Amino acid sequence: MTEAGEVQTFTGPVPASDLGVTLIHEHVFVGHPELDLNFPHPEWDEAAAVEAAVAGLDRLWELGVRTVVDLTVLGLGRDVARVATVAARSRVQLVASTGYYTADVLPPYFHTHGPGLLIDGPDPLVEMFVNDIEVGIAGTAIRAGMLKVVTDRPGLTPDVVRVITAAAIAHQHTGVPITTHTHAPSQNGRDQLALLVEHGVAPERVVVGHCGDSEDLAYLRELADTGATLGMDRFGMEHVLPDEQRVRTVLALLELGYADRMVLSHDAAFFSRVTPPSWRATHVPNWHMENLHRRIVPLLRDGGATDDDLNQMLVVNPARLLTPAPQH
């Protein structure tokens, strides 16, 4: 049973006050089990990847990072047993997540299993999410500390609505916060947040992800004014938007008084099949988890961000969000 104020990590519950500097939207390993089994990626070597992740987390520790939230859920190749081998060797605390990553359709299993479907019964998504949070993921004792949902260019497809609805139910049951992937150009964080609120989720318990991909201050303020937190969480993804512009947006929002509704991160990975290490090294050399402390924090300071601002976005806000809401 989780005590009040405790957050689940790969190595057990910790008080939220002990999370410290937190990168709230990252990935350790992103894969695709069926492809990995049948068409292995030439750059993947499990032992080498584990060593790279351990070394990377060591460097983060030296930079002052104390917690990393791994938002690798189903659809992105989640393997908590593999990540547990990294967590066991790291001083940095890792937080596991549950949810389903699909921008359009779920696998066929979900089209036959669920309320009113061919194999009638409870929605397996809800059962999975709640079990991951309350019991453990994939037969382990590792419990999820965050829920993850997605909308992208296709918008609120029927299966995306189903995932978001299931996450809202699981949130109501467990109090664990919800973080999202959004498609900033279509501004569908607005629709996503409205759907979550419709299903009883308080905006204060939601991180609207990838808001840093947008420079539209009116859109970002509209989201933040609901009480939701803006995920300025893709520093280093300069193939989407240069860091200089991302920094400018954060500084503008700080000036407007939104320090308490922003979190900073990278959406980076130690290995991703989607954008493998050789491609990243060539095209986006700053897309790694050290980018914030090595490059972005100095730029924010130069632009007028205070130590209090940085502490708010990197320590206070993540701890508040990751603390499960009390259940009545």
Account of the protein in words:
The chain is an alpha/beta fold. The protein contains 12 helices and 11 strands. It has a 9-stranded parallel β-sheet with strand order 10-9-8-7-6-5-4-3-11. Strands 1-2 form a two-stranded antiparallel ribbon. Helix 2 (46-63) packs across helix 3 (80-87) and helix 5 packs parallel to helix 6 (158-174).
Keywords:
328 residues, two-stranded antiparallel ribbon, globular, alpha/beta, nine-stranded parallel beta sheet, single chain, TIM Barrel
Count of discrete structural domains: 1
CA(first)-CA(last) distance = 15 Å
Residues in helices, as a percent range: 25-40%
Give me the CATH architecture, please.
Answer: Alpha-Beta Barrel
Strand content: 15-25%
Helices and strands: which structural class?
Answer: alpha/beta
SS field, number of helical segments? 12
Order of helices and strands: EEEHHEHEHHEHEHEHEHEEHHH
CATH fold-level label: TIM Barrel
Total strands: the figure is 11
Rg from alpha-carbon coordinates: 19 Å
CATH class category: Alpha Beta
Q: Report the CATH superfamily.
A: Metal-dependent hydrolases
Mean pLDDT: 97
Q: Indicate the overall shape.
A: globular
Strand order of the largest sheet: 10-9-8-7-6-5-4-3-11
Short description:
The protein has 12 helices and 11 strands. The chain has 328 residues and is α/β, with parallel strands linked by helices. The model has no long low-confidence stretch (mean pLDDT 97).
